[in-house]
Each structure stands twice: as C-alpha cells, then as structure tokens.
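DM from R.C. (forwarded with permission)

"hey, sorry to bug you on a friday — could you get me a structure for this? deadline for the figure draft is monday and I only need the backbone to look sensible"
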Amino acid sequence: MKLTNYIKDLLYRYDCVIIPDFGGFVTKRIGAKIDENTHRFFPPSKQLSFNGNLKNNDGLLANYIASVENISFEKASNAIALCVIKWQNEIQTKPIILDSIGILTLNENRQIIFEPTKSINFLIESFGLSFFETSTANRHQSEVKKFVPEVPKNDKKTIHAFIKYAASAAILLTLGVATYSNYQENSQKELLTKQQKSLEKKIQTATFVISNPLPTIELTVVKELEKNFHVVAGAFQNPENANRKMNRLIKEGHDAKILGVNKWGLTQVVYASFSDKNEAINYLYKIQKTVTQDAWLLIKK
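My reply, with the result:
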C-alpha cells in the first residue's frame, strides 16, 4: 500500500489531511497571479504546506483507505502507523520524497521542513490549466521622436514661426475637444429623451385602477445556511444497520441523520451537520473525547 497516493487523492477534496503521529498537509487557496519578472500568468491554485503539530487522528485518511481497499478501519490505521514508523526512521538519514506532493527533510533543530512540488495544482477548479507567458510591448524612442518637431537653434524667425504654429495647434486641439464634448453631451441628452418617451408610453398603456386594493403583506425570508460540514459516525453496507445507528444516536441526544450513500455504496450516518467549520471541528473533538475516536469530519459541498 502506497500511502502517498491516498494523501494526494484527499488533497484534491479537502483542505487538511492528517497523518496520525506525524503531521498534517494543509492547503490554502490562492488566486491567479502574474510574475512581473518572467511575465508568466498562473491560474488559481492550492498552496500546500506541512504542519508538524497536527498529529491527532481525525479518521479521514484511515476511513478513505478502508473504503478503497475494502478493509476494516483498524487495519487501515495499522497500515498508516507502520508507514509513519518507516518515515520517522528514514528522515533521520535522508530526505523523504513523496511523489507529486513534495520533499520532507530535517533541519538543524530536528524539525521537519517541507518543500512542496511545483508541478501539481490540487485545486479541482483549475484542473488542466497551466501557466503561460505574455509578451511585453516596447516603444522605441525613435517612434516617439518622429512626432515631435525639432526647433532649430539660433534662428529667431524660425522660433517665432514655431511659436505661432504651436499656439494655433493648441487652439485647434481645444476646439476639437470642446466640439467632441458637446457632441457627446447632445447625443446623451437625445438618447435620454428617447428612453423617457418610451417609458412614458409603456406606463400609459399599462396603467389601470384598482378600486379595492388588497393590503400590503410584508414577508421576511430567512435563508438557511447550507450545512456542508458533517461529523460522521459510520458508513454501512446494510441500510437497516444505518437506520438503527441513527435512531440510537438520536436517543442519545445527537442531531443525527442519514447523509446518503457515498460512491462506494455505503450509507453514511452523521452525529450532526454544521454550516460553520469551526463548530464542526469542536463537535468532532467532543465526540472523539467522550464517545469514540472513530468519528471523522466530512466536508461535502
């Protein structure tokens, strides 16, 4: 089993993937940008980093491996633990190269340093998009100079004629701008008049009188926030088992429900669903501390 492949799959779907007792890979969305030095345009992407303090098992990675490999959660967790032990021993002597993710090394303080790969964009919306270069427009000095008349030196008649010419050109330019401004203003007034007449005609044809008008009713519509963050209690092949689990959780005081069937055909049961990510994470920690460590967070948009 190659753990790197499962981590990479989850990074496309989630903002954080934790490897228990090792650390977590965290993504942050960044917008499109332009490198002014290389004139390269880069599409929106996910910026990948590593946090060595994220070591608590949230169940996401183990559940995903168990679903794909068709094994139990315990077996998946044991496989992750074995891989972590291997990484912890290997990083003491050489860098750990994670395909399509990056390189992990130890610094002088024995802290893990992560260098992400530049070739993979984990943002699904930018799939298939790559950077491209733009060309720059340069104006040569010769092209600008040819529009500027040269003034001969030490020639009073020529200088006097040039001043006349420049003054005339300035007057003509001012008149041209004023004429264009008046034309534009008149055009706008004419267009506004036509629109006003058209509107008056429509109002005249649509006006009617109601003798007994109904009273005005004010309605206040409250838009319910979508609950995209779910604390998962389990996934079951048998829907009856899922219903029994949901009813038991409801009796225990949880806002439990059946979320639906995932792509592997398993019926998912959740302790509760939230619209706020922080509330969901706090509830997850509460469940893991008081009920079971097998609960995990599902983000479904």
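R.C.: lifesaver. Helices lie at 3-11, 60-69, 73-90, 141-145, 156-206, 239-251, 277-290.
me: no worries. The chain is about 40% helix and 20% strand.
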